[in-house]
Amino acid sequence: MSNPNYTQMWENLNLDLSAHDGLLEVLGKFYGDIYLSQQGRLKGMEYLDFVLSEVHGLRIKELQDAKAQGRKVIGTFCVFVPEELTLAADAVHVGLCAGADAGTEQAEQLVPRNTCALIKSFIGFKMARLCPYTESCDLVVGETTCDGKKKAYEAFSEHVPMHVMEVPHTKSQSARELFKAEVLRYKEQLEKLTGTTITPQRLAEGIRIVNEKRRALQRLSALRASDPAPISGRDALLINQVSFYDDPVRFTQSVNTLCDQMEERIKAGEGITPAGTPRLMLSGCPMAVPNWKLPYIMESSGAVIVGEESCIGTRNTRDLVNESADSMDAMLDAIVDRYMKIDCACFTPNDERTGNVTSMAKELKADGIVHYALMFCQPYAHEAFKIDKASREAGIPMLAIETDYSMEDVEQLKTRVEAFVEMVRS
């Protein structure tokens, strides 16, 4: 994944070149073992392989070219930051590095050791000078979805230009009003940063682009209900992960092409695994690149993953922004309404999530649910109990997994997952 053609660009971004080369070398091998070793992959996955091979190269060059043209780059960690507004301000919207142990020692100088791996990761990538996305950003947008992030942003803001959005933790009318005020504040921040006035026409186009991306991912999700499964869970997760990095129009085209190939495979009665393979659904915390440990274990244990109920999955794509609005106020209301439907574990009560999980499992014909929580992530660890109760009432067995980014527990997880797959199979 390393490429000497980009060395000068990485050096200009003040990356630690030696450590960065080491990271890319490890990730390249990791990617080859987990993804390229699969048999019977769809041809359309070649595009995703290319994107990942160039995720710190060509895509970063595209960001630098955009900046040279006067455009701004906005980095985010969360699906609550409205991409529609970012695009309407003619800025580039990208996700940031947060899916691997990196710069842990440096991160623990800013946050406690018992902080979840995702938070330590995005701080560690910055402090160890390993993330060219963070270094390319003109603004990093945080959000108050959990106490860990809120406090981490206080320390992180000393190292990056930050804007923090307040996300309410209830879905009352007053909470909606608070979130609308935050959406308006983000809009004003974007206009100030970019010098571009967000007009109704620009916003309508931003809404259309992001909705089209979500529609393509919805199509992908629906096709996975077929048995045999037309695509592996690893590949589907990769597609969702790349959606946070790639150009949205180009990405949408590539996913629709891939879905065309999936439909051909389904029509021919073919799949990535034989019909009757135990079908599992992942639920819970998001999995940022390159957090592929648990999906690899699950699919190496005789199962196929048929859906992801997470922010890197249906929680981010399930709902569209209403496109019928024709005024700025109406479009902003439509954006607020759409984002307030997100059933993040930060909300209390969060009863809609239990219904969404079980209905999704039934739609995808899942034989079981694996609920994934990062260690020290209190919201999702708490909700594992609710999801377990709801899934069992629906007749769907569930396995709760709590882990981090390290590889130390791989054998233990494999034993538990294999036992769960055998139980589901029988």
Describe what is shown at a glance.
This protein is of the alpha/beta class and 426 residues long.
Give the second-level CATH assignment, the architecture of the largest domain.
3-Layer(aba) Sandwich
**How many β-strand stretches?**
8
Output mean pLDDT.
97
* Oligomeric status: single chain
For this structure, the CATH topology of the largest domain is Rossmann fold
Helical residues, percent:
40-55%
Please tally the helical runs, counting DSSP H or I stretches of 4 or more residues: 19
Structural category: alpha/beta
Strand content: 5-15%
- Biggest sheet overview: 4 strands, parallel
Question: Which ranges are low-confidence, i.e. pLDDT below 50, for 5 or more consecutive residues?
Answer: none
Shape: globular
CATH structural class of the largest domain: Alpha Beta
Instruction: Identify the strand order in the major beta sheet.
Output: 2-1-3-4
Secondary-structure blueprint:
Elements: H1 7-12, H2 17-36, H3 45-53, H4 58-68, E1 73-76, H5 83-88, E2 92-95, H6 104-107, H7 117-127, H8 132-136, E3 139-143, H9 147-156, E4 162-165, H10 173-194, H11 200-223, H12 233-242, H13 248-267, E5 279-284, H14 293-299, E6 304-309, H15 314-317, H16 328-339, H17 351-363, E7 368-374, H18 378-393, E8 398-403, H19 410-425
Parallel strand pairs: 1-2, 1-3, 3-4, 5-6, 5-7, 7-8
